[in-house]
From TrEMBL:
Transmembrane segments: none annotated. This is Reverse transcriptase domain-containing protein. It comes from Rotaria magnacalcarata. It comes from the Eukaryota. PANTHER family: REVERSE TRANSCRIPTASE DOMAIN-CONTAINING PROTEIN. InterPro entries: DNA/RNA_pol_sf (IPR043502), Endo/exonu/phosph_ase_sf (IPR036691), RT_dom (IPR000477). Residues 423-705 form the Reverse transcriptase domain. Coiled coil: none annotated.
Length: 895
């Protein structure tokens, strides 16, 4: 290493930095942290110095932090920060120094290395207590996230005698370089912006398509639906090629200037000359040119980045969202394409084996049909469905039919599509393009040769989407009125946060009032791809959907096929016999109807066996006030089953699995987990002889359920990850701070504040949240800690309110929205839920702050209103809006 030594510097009495030359350059920080019993001031000073010197290191360097950090990191930290901390920790719990080290890692994009390799405990501890018995892992080696995969192994050794109570810790490093990107074929694309922006071209396009269609119809005397549709798409494609033309692939601009290219040639010539004629003069000339080339490359790269940032600025000002996100991905280096060539058994991407019991498929139709329009499809319905399509969406197998063609191609195209839809609706015969989808496999975790580790995203014919949207518009409102309120997925006016909030309030109240609660979070195997289609159509009839409409839906599902798009190549067709159609607007609603049927039956059978079903949220008061119970909370296939006792939770899961199997769904036992506030006494909920895992916390719909503190820690970690991906934007001196903050709110705060409406923000959590935002603002402004600029000055510069004030106003807006909903909806009933008097008892001692009290104090901390007063006020929008505007941050000490 001495041959590559560059320089060293003393940062403080506890920190030293050493720099080495190389490609890439390497910086090693040696640190000795204060022990656990030192004062907070001393610890803060150390980590402030450490963070500042870390952020000063160029981001492309290999950065390693090694030393006695006196920090114990436990398995609890891996649960919250899996990106920063591995799962092979020596300790169970994290101490204060450990939390400080983790915060430093998040702020500086550093990773723990020891915790990523499975070693026996004997190879993990690094320090022996003077008593000769207690051991700890307090010496750590950390590396910046960019080079994490270069670490091959880390462990402690006894083989070197140090005459110390510490052991030597060694890391094996092997630099990993990124593989070159491969060229991939692309489907034909057309510049639809020309058609969208030019009214003259739209009129010309309309006439040209009509003329070409009439010619094709005269040539082909067979006028069945397939021929008509083939002529329809051929006339559109020919017209598109003639009037619009293919999009020319823009060549990537070479960011290296002509000066740099000339220097490269001169440098190579000088290098060759030195090898042929070794001399001191030739070597010196070669090194001088090499240095000039490096400087020129760096200047060109900076200019290229500034040009991209200027384009980003213009795109955001012009509200071009697609261009904006494309530039953000390019600047951040986000991967937007995947190598999927190694996938085996592509047909398994959609098809799933079903487990149907033939004896239970006899589902009777409803005695009376729902009031659903069964008449011919009108041009107004077609126009409405087309307007509901989003521009810029990828087309299906008939790649010339796009949302832009249907919207801006002229009235004749719309009329012709209306005729085609009516013929399909009346005859239940579809062109093959309606039944053939393109699957784009998106990889998940695990072995990339296995289809189970891919999510198949389907590209469906846009014309077929329009047809299905018409059917959805007809059935949605009548069908929605009879679906259970427990289901919130894909329903108008319902959101994820509703289920998150209701689940949190119920769990919080059960813990507060010591009410036994068992929640089983159910996961189905490939739920959308497993539904038995025949059973699904029977369920639609069971719910009162008229036979005419069911047959119209069934036509789209008849003889469906798919092809897989892998690296630009299209595979052979294969049959798809199970599941709802992917990429379709109607399919999600069909899916939740099937789930509603499953859960309704599971609830019914569970009730017959055990009496009152589900978790009792309020006891029976009288014959006119029966108990209120919650059996399940659902968002599509994310289902939480609630019960009061272990035995009933066991029966509840068995009944749910049984009813789900009747429609083709199978519970994934390894991913299904259970949570309770009771002592399990080694009891385990079982399904098919396999144990369901007990967990202390669970991420439901993206939020940690048990406490606000844990959820904020997880979301903060994810927000830091998103923040550092865009470091080129934050550190740019050409982008205005207002634009940086707009990007920050969209890319980082949206991650941090997901589910914040249901948080209870204490004094400590307020400091945590505001500290995160302030740190980000300082980085955007280029402020260093040595600049000694106060936070008040930062906020005066950016003209933004504290983050917690934004959150608390958002919470009040949400509560007002919930309390104005129908009284029979879950979110209204459980927005400010607390068990009534006599239902459960609090623990002795100071009670935790619950959500209703928290909201009351947000409204008026001096004289908090009652729940009844809050409900009454929320109904008046104007009064509630005044309360939201007047809200200021409140500090609450207890969660």
């Amino acid at each position: 290493m001495s041959a590559f030594f560059n320089s060293s510097e003393k940062v403080s009495n506890r920190i030293m930095m050493v720099h080495f030359n190389g490609n890439p350059a390497t910086t090693i920080i040696i640190a000795y942290a204060p022990t656990e019993d030192k004062s907070d001031i001393e610890k803060d000073t150390f980590y402030n110095d450490l963070q500042q010197c870390t952020l000063d290191v160029p981001p492309h360097n290999v950065l390693i932090l090694a030393g006695d950090l006196n920090a114990r990191i436990g398995t609890d930290s891996h649960t919250i920060n899996p990106r920063t901390i591995g799962k092979y920790t020596y300790h169970q719990l994290t101490d204060d120094n450990g939390n400080r080290l983790i915060n430093y890692c998040e702020n500086c994009n550093m990773r723990s290395t020891q915790t990523r390799f499975p070693h026996p405990k004997s190879r993990s501890w690094t320090w022996l207590h003077p008593n000769g018995k207690s051991k700890a892992q307090i010496d750590h080696i950390l590396i910046n996230g960019k080079w994490l995969n270069s670490i091959r192994n880390v462990r402690a050794y006894n083989t070197v005698e140090l005459n110390s109570d510490h052991r030597i810790v060694s890391a094996k490093l092997s630099i990993s370089l990124r593989a070159p990107k491969q060229n991939k074929n692309k489907r034909i694309k057309f510049d639809w912006n020309k058609l969208k922006a030019n009214s003259v071209l739209q009129a010309q396009f309309n006439i040209e398509v009509q003329n070409r269609y009439e010619i094709l119809q005269n040539i082909n005397t067979d006028h069945d639906i397939q021929t008509k549709y083939d002529n329809f798409i051929t006339s559109i494609q020919d017209t598109t090629v003639k009037l619009i033309g293919k999009t020319t692939r823009k060549k990537r601009k070479n960011w290296a200037s002509t000066t740099t290219i000339d220097l490269l040639e001169k440098r190579n010539s000088a290098k060759s000359k030195f090898k042929q004629q070794p001399s001191r003069e030739n070597k010196q000339h070669w090194h001088i040119l090499n240095k000039q080339l490096d400087e020129s490359y760096n200047n060109d790269k900076i200019n290229f980045l500034e040009d991209k940032l200027e384009q980003l600025k213009q795109a955001m000002v012009s509200n071009h969202l697609r261009t904006t996100w494309s530039l953000i991905d390019e600047i951040s280096g986000k991967r937007t394409s995947y190598n999927t060539s190694k996938i085996k058994r592509k047909d398994e991407l959609l098809n799933a084996k079903t487990n149907i019991n033939p004896n239970t498929q006899a589902i009777p139709p409803a005695p009376e049909d729902l009031p659903i329009n069964q008449g011919p499809i009108t041009i107004n319905e077609v126009e409405q469905a087309i307007n509901q399509l989003k521009d810029g969406k990828s087309p299906g197998i008939d790649h010339s039919i796009t949302p832009e063609v249907l919207k801006y191609g002229g009235r004749w195209i719309m009329n012709q599509l209306c005729n085609i839809c009516n013929e399909i609706y009346n005859n239940q015969q579809t062109p093959k393009q309606f039944n053939t989808n393109i699957i784009v496999p998106i990889p998940k975790k695990g072995d990339k040769t296995l289809t189970t580790n891919y999510r198949g995203i389907s590209l469906m014919s846009v014309a077929a989407k329009t047809y299905n949207r018409i059917l959805l518009n007809r059935i949605r409102e009548p069908l929605d009125s009879i679906l259970r309120v427990n289901q919130a997925g894909f329903r108008k006016g319902r959101r994820c946060i509703d289920q998150i909030h209701a689940t949190r309030r119920i769990l919080e109240s059960a813990i507060d009032k010591q009410l036994p609660i068992y929640i089983t979070f159910v996961d189905f195997k490939k739920a959308f791809d497993s539904i038995n289609r025949k059973t699904m159509f029977n369920i639609l009839r069971h719910y009162g959907v008229p036979t005419k409409i069911v047959c119209a839906i069934e036509a789209i599902y008849h003889n469906t096929k798919s092809v897989v798009l892998v690296d630009g190549n299209v595979s052979e067709e294969f049959d798809v016999t199970t599941g709802v159609l992917q990429g379709d607007t109607l399919a999600p609603y069909l899916f939740i109807t099937v789930i509603d049927y499953v859960m309704k039956n599971a609830q019914l059978y569970h009730t017959n066996e055990h009496g009152e079903y589900g978790f009792v949220t309020n006891k029976r008061q009288s014959s006119r006030q029966p108990p209120t119970c919650v059996h399940d909370l659902d968002f599509a296939d994310d289902i939480a089953l609630l019960e009061n006792s272990f035995d009933r939770a066991q029966s509840q899961l068995v009944q749910t699995a049984k009813r789900a199997s009747e429609v083709g769904l199978q519970i994934n036992i390894t991913k299904t987990q259970a949570l309770t506030n009771q002592n399990t006494n080694n009891q385990t909920i079982q399904l098919d002889g396999q144990n369901i895992k007990w967990v202390d916390n669970f991420k439901y719909l993206g939020s940690m359920m048990l406490s606000t503190t844990t959820d904020i820690k997880v979301r903060k970690s994810q927000a830091w990850k998103a923040f550092w991906k865009l470091k080129n934007i934050w550190k740019s001196t050409t982008i205005p701070i207002k634009l940086k903050i707009n990007i920050f709110k969209t890319t980082c705060l949206s991650i941090l504040l997901y589910g914040c409406e249901s948080w209870i923000i204490t004094n400590k959590l307020e400091n945590t949240l505001n500290s995160f935002a302030t740190s980000c603002y300082r980085i955007m402004l280029g402020i260093k800690r040595t600049d000694k600029i106060k936070n008040n000055t930062v906020y005066e510069t950016i003209k933004e309110e504290p983050l917690t004030q934004t959150i608390q106003r958002r919470q009040l807006r949400y509560i007002g929205h919930c309390l104005r909903r129908n009284t029979n909806e879950f979110i209204n009933m459980y927005a400010l839920y607390t068990p009534k008097s006599g239902h459960g008892t609090r623990k002795r001692g100071r009670p935790r702050l619950n959500y209703p009290d928290y909201v009351a104090r947000l409204i008026n901390n001096d004289t908090p209103p009652t729940i009844e007063e809050i409900r009454k006020t929320a109904v008046n929008r104007e009064e509630w809006r005044k309360i939201v505007v007047a809200c200021k941050p409140r500090l609450f000490a207890v969660e």
